[in-house]
Write a structure and sequence with these properties.
Layout (H helix, E strand, L loop, with lengths): L2 E2 L2 E2 H12 L5 H13 L14 E4 L10 E4 L10 H15 L7 E5 L3 H13 L2 E5 L6 H9 L3
Parallel strand pairs: 5-6
Antiparallel strand pairs: 1-2, 3-4
Helix pairs in contact: 3-4, 4-5
Length: 148
């Protein structure tokens, strides 16, 4: 994963967006990122869903309702699909459909497969992704890095 100033590269797009488009100061964005990075999770899966919320100011007309944005890019893979992947794996475990040494197979177009690959790697399951020839090499390599 590419890091810039200690942050995943995917975070820098969000920093720019929330600074330029939503009116958050760089200090506010830095504080949000500090809050994210200061918590030490016991596993990568614990960090899923513990994403911060930011109030949007510039994109909301004066006198309007308070508008908040959940910063899902703070999930481990940078995707809100991490929540779903964690829930699917944990539900399959609870139902007895997924046991130690099990394999998860998914036909995927990208971020779902990456999130499932991460969840499976964290839980010790095998993951096999099935995808079309049009699937990007970058996404293939990301899933491979997670053990798919």
């Amino acid at each position: 994963m590419l890091l810039l100033n200690g942050l995943p590269a995917c975070c820098w797009d969000a920093v720019f967006y929330f600074n330029q488009e939503c009116g958050l100061t760089l200090e506010s964005v830095e504080r949000i990122l500090t809050d994210i990075t200061m918590h030490v999770a016991s596993s990568i899966l614990e960090s899923i869903g513990s994403t911060p919320i930011a109030q949007l100011r510039k994109v909301v007309p004066p006198g309007s309702a308070r508008v908040l944005a959940k910063l899902e890019w703070a999930n481990p893979t940078g995707s809100m699909k991490d929540r779903m992947a964690k829930a699917v794996i944990e539900r399959a475990e609870a139902d007895g459909r997924l046991r130690d040494g099990g394999t998860v197979v998914e036909y995927t177009g990208g971020t779902t497969g990456i999130s499932l690959a991460l969840a499976c790697a964290a839980k010790g399951y095998h993951f096999h992704a099935v995808f079309s020839d049009a699937f990007s090499e970058e996404k293939r390599l990301t899933m491979k890095a997670f053990g798919a």
